[in-house]
Write a structure and sequence with these properties.
The complex is a heterodimer. By secondary structure, chain A is mostly beta strands. In chain A, 0% of the residues lie in helices and 51% in strands. Chain A has one domain: Immunoglobulin-like. In chain A, the strands form two sheets. Chain A has a five-stranded mixed sheet, with no helix packed on it. In chain A, strands 1-3-6 form a three-stranded antiparallel sheet, with no helix packed on it. In chain A, 27% of the residues are buried. In chain B, strands 1, 3, 5, 6, 8 and 9 form a six-stranded mixed sheet that branches. A three-stranded antiparallel sheet of chain B has the order 2-4-7, with no helix packed on it. Chain B is of the alpha+beta class. At the A-B interface, strand 5 and strand 6 of A face strand 6 and strand 7 of B. Strand 6 of chain A pairs antiparallel with strand 7 (113-119) of chain B, so a sheet runs across the interface.
Amino acid sequence: MTAKPIPKVRLQAQAKAGEIIEIKTLIAHEMESGQRKDVSGQIIPRKIINRFIAAFNGKPVFEAEWHPAISANPYQSFFFKAVESGEFTFTWKDDDGSEYVTVNKLTVA
Amino acid sequence: MDFMSIEHSRRETLRLAGLAGLALIVTSSGAQATPDEVSAAIAKLYGEKKPESGKIKLDVPEIAENGLVVPVNVEVESPMTDADYVKAVHIFAEGNPLPNVVSYKFTPACGKAAASARMRLAQTQNIICLAEMSNGSLYKASASVKVTIGGCGG
């Protein structure tokens, strides 16, 4: 893929204290498994996003280690218990060393 | 097709075709992960520790038409407090070229030990889910998925 993967995150902007919210994330990425062969029979080298990390106010909350069995354009959802207002940082780490980062605010009423 | 020229009854021809198909499955399965490889991957993480059953709700489709995108949803029963929470969840596929699918790390801040993703499945197979609790106990669950079109290319 030539274009830089663009992450998408869906979560509510406001929550009540103690509410458990669902966070849905999606990132455009081919997730080349390293199992496929090209027309000449050569194995296409593996290039996947191998890690997804969600942190809230700098503290890690949830982490996923992805293997080649994760589908292209990987989707990941998980939950978070809202306690205080703050900022999420979502990081996707690519096999080639690139990192894709996005930030979302959450206001707790 | 040489054997077609020999006078077989229709039944015989079908039987031979069936055998050929079976041979194909047997030879192609050589490149796949096996239940043993999944066990080895689990042993690498947790040694000889025996997992208990229960607590895990592993939600996968019974039939997946497209092996490229199979939803996998897991939820582990836990109060998710600092004293008692789910530390990690691992998902394995017994019939894929590689046994690992995904590993999650949860914290009490999650409020709920649940996550959804989408995986590739090469063929009809069992999915194994392992959960590690904060007190060190292990739980295991499995589910089978029928795959119509495999999703690992090749």
